Amino acid sequence: MDFDLPEGAAAVREGVLAVAGKYDQDYWGRCDADKRWPEEVWRELVDGGWHSLAIPEEYGGGGQGLLELAVALEALAEGGAGGAASFMYLLTPAFGGLTIARHGTAEQKRELLPKIASGGIETCFAITEPDAGSNAIEISTQARRDGDAFVVSGQKIWISGVERADLLVLVARTTPAAQARPRTAGFTVLLVDVKEAVAEGTLTYRPIPKLGTNTVASSMVFLDNVRVPADRVLGEPDQGFAVLWDILNPERILAAAGGVGSGGLVLRIACEYAGERAPFGKPIGANQAVAFPLARIKAQLELARLMTYKAAWLWDRGRPCGSEANIAKLTAADAAWQAADRAFQTYGGMAYSLEYPVARMFRDARIAKNIPVAEELVLAHIAQHELGLPKSY
C-alpha cells in the first residue's frame, strides 16, 4: 500500500499552488464582492493546462485522471481561493472534459475535447429542479424525439455557470418517471448549445441572489422547446443513468477536495492569527481552549483527504466508489465547516469585519454541507448500503 502521491499528481499540486500564490485574499475578496468570475486565475489555469488534466493527450489534455483534478482543486483552494476553487474545477474540467472523455462518442471527443483543452469551450451541468430537489428520480424536464433531434422543455434550478457556458450538460427524462421500469431508466443526458438556444429564445435564465460563493452565478433555467440534435446525446437515449453516476460521483469527490483545501486555508489563517494575537501578554494560541479545537480540525482534514484520494483512485480504475465518494464529501464538508466556524471563534469579534477573509470563508463553507448532496442523504445511503439498515426514503 503506497500513500505517496503519483509523480504526476505531485507536480500538479506544485504547479497549481504556484498559480494560486500570485493572488492574495484581497483579490479573492474583490471577486466575491463584485460577483465576478476570477478570470485572471482561470486564464492561468487554462494556459498552463491545469484545467484539462483529465482530457486525453491526443485531444490536447494532460492525459491524467480524477485524482489529479482533485489534487489540483485542493491546491487551488488551499493556496488562497477557498470555496471559489470548487466551481473552477467542477464546471468545465469535470462536467465537460471528464464526462465527455469517458462517455462521449468518437466524434464528440474529436470536436469538443480539443476546444475544452484550449479554453475555447466552457460547460455547466443541470439536473436539479424546483419540485424534485435532491430526488433526481422525480425530475420532470422532458426530452421528446422529433426526427433527428430531441425537443426539451422544463425548468432547472441552482444551475451554476450557465451565463458563461457554451454547452449545458443537461439531464432530462425521455421516459416519464411514472412509466420508467426500473425507475432509473428513461434518463437521457444531452449537450445543449447554450448560446444558440438563448439566441433562439428557447433557453432563458435568471440569477438567484445568494449568500456566498459569489464568484459564480447560480440561476433558474427555463427550457421552452429547446432543440438538441440527436448526435448530442452522451451515452444512449433512455440509458443516461450510467452517465449520470459518472457525473455525480466525481462531483462529490471534487467537492470533497474543495472542502479539504478550503478547510486547510481557513485553518492556516486561524492559526496565524492565534499565533500573533496577544491581548493578555501571550498569543491566544498558547491556550488549550484555542489550540485543541484547531488541532482536532487538522486531524479531521487529514482523514477527509485520505478518503477523497481513495475515492478518486477508485473512480480512475473504473471501480465502484459511491460509498467512498459519499464519505469523502460528508467528512470534508464537515471539516471545512468546523474549520471556518473555529476560525470565526478564534478571530472573535473581528471575524465579523469584512476587512478579514473569515466572514467570506464562513459563508462559503456552510453551503458545502448541503451541496452537491445534503449530508442527510449521504447518511441515509451509508446506513442502508454500508450498515444494512432499512431504506429510510
TrEMBL record:
Its cofactor is FAD. It comes from the Bacteria. CDD domains: ACAD. Residues 124-226 form the Acyl-CoA oxidase/dehydrogenase middle domain. Pfam families: Acyl-CoA_dh_1 (PF00441), Acyl-CoA_dh_M (PF02770), Acyl-CoA_dh_N (PF02771). InterPro entries: Acyl-CoA_Oxase/DH_mid-dom (IPR006091), Acyl-CoA_Oxase/DH_mid-dom_sf (IPR046373), AcylCo_DH-like_C (IPR036250), AcylCo_DH/oxidase_C (IPR009075), AcylCoA_DH/ox_N (IPR013786), AcylCoA_DH/ox_N_sf (IPR037069), AcylCoA_DH/oxidase_NM_dom_sf (IPR009100). The keyword Membrane does not apply. One of its GO terms (molecular function) is medium-chain fatty acyl-CoA dehydrogenase activity. Its EC number is 1.3.8.7. Residues 238-369 form the Acyl-CoA dehydrogenase/oxidase C-terminal domain. Belongs to the acyl-CoA dehydrogenase family. This is Acyl-CoA dehydrogenase. It comes from Actinomadura coerulea.
